[in-house]
Task: structure prediction
Amino acid sequence: MSGNETIQKSTISSTEPDIQSNSLKAGIRQKKELQILEAAEKVFSEFGYHGATTQMIADGAGVPKANLHYYFPTKLVLYRRIIDQIFSIWLDAAQSFDENSDPVQALSSYIDKKMQISRSHPHGSRIWANEIMQGAPIIQDYLETTLREWTNSRIAIIQGWIDRGLIDPVDPRHLLYMIWSVTQHYADFAHQIDTLNGGKPLSTSQWGNACENVKKIILAGIGAKGVDIK
Amino acid sequence: MSGNETIQKSTISSTEPDIQSNSLKAGIRQKKELQILEAAEKVFSEFGYHGATTQMIADGAGVPKANLHYYFPTKLVLYRRIIDQIFSIWLDAAQSFDENSDPVQALSSYIDKKMQISRSHPHGSRIWANEIMQGAPIIQDYLETTLREWTNSRIAIIQGWIDRGLIDPVDPRHLLYMIWSVTQHYADFAHQIDTLNGGKPLSTSQWGNACENVKKIILAGIGAKGVDIK
DNA sequence: GTCTATAGAATGATAGAC
DNA sequence: GTCTATCATTCTATAGAC
Result:
């Protein structure tokens, strides 16, 4: 299942000679594709892959259903494009977690970024969650390669902190899972959180408060030295 | 939405005079219903409401599809029954969090129970997560009534601990969210966790380790006095 | 490049024989 | 109480006019 689906990054053929008309068409295509991708992200996150219909996505993007199939041949190809997009955002954020920082800096920054993503890309987070809960039928290969490697490298870094006495001896893996789960909870369970907030989305200051609480509890929880996050 | 759906606990009419045959039929019905409910829980958790087909559920339960419709008139009624079941389990576990215990006792016990549920009822946890991510189309009333009341009462208890100096001043609401998210993560993202565990489910000792880490970090994170969880 | 109309397949639910 | 056969609906995807 991992290798038999080619990602078509550009269907604009390089064999087409008319550059002028080509770039114009490319502009239209790019704009429409973006509209469709944005609509699809919302619909997939709200109804899941099976619950989403191409009709809903087409309506959300403001194009006829047949037009959608012109840009994305199948529903599955569209879904894969969105998953790829999300995974890319996750990985970019994860880069901040680098070996040169001390634990407080590294973890504070990582938690901040993950909370920001939960606020700016809640749909993506939910699609990811949905995909995992269904056994990752589409992205299993990502889990087994990229995610596993990233996870192991971060575990090594955390273990290094423990060995140098910078944080308490906790299981690095479960510390990572805690950070993932708590930060993504604010995206995945946003509806529940909003309902318990009187039916309103969290305000900017409420988001800030959530973020501070998460950082405080986790950093204090692992005995990180020199805690100064305010 | 809260009161217009009667739960049919027993469709065996009390006007039926033949007691012997009646209880026999009730036994068959109960057994079949249980088979169907168990199969449905698995299928709904794996594919979501829309992705699940009555055919899959019927196959999983070992009954013909038409037979399934004999016991549960519609797919939606079957789904509601399962959601009710899950919500009931959550609430029961939540009772352990009572006012008389000290923070360490209360929170340790609560986290233990939530972790146990994640291991014993992962399907239920995922169905709940799925339902919330889709905007709680079926259980919105539960969120606005029972869950809100329970949450507010626990927030008051935690605030009491803070006022008495038993734990650090954290936002009780976000502490609850942290406990929910971390514990449920081990059910909702079990596939990801298993993949990162070499493709194998966590062993009993690995579950114990996860539970201890969660308790340690959270209790230390809120400065709970007298931490003694091992 | 856009859109109407529709083909083809899958699904929820039911009828009716046993 | 069980099960085969089938209806009615819905959905993905495509054909073909503009």
Q: What stands out?
A: Confidence is low (pLDDT under 50) at residues 1-21 of chain A. Chain A is about 70% helix and 0% strand. Residues 25, 28-29, 32, 63-67, 70 of chain A lie near DNA strand C (CB under 10 Å from a C1'). Residues 82-221 of chain A form a domain with the Tetracycline Repressor; domain 2 fold (CATH 1.10.357.10).
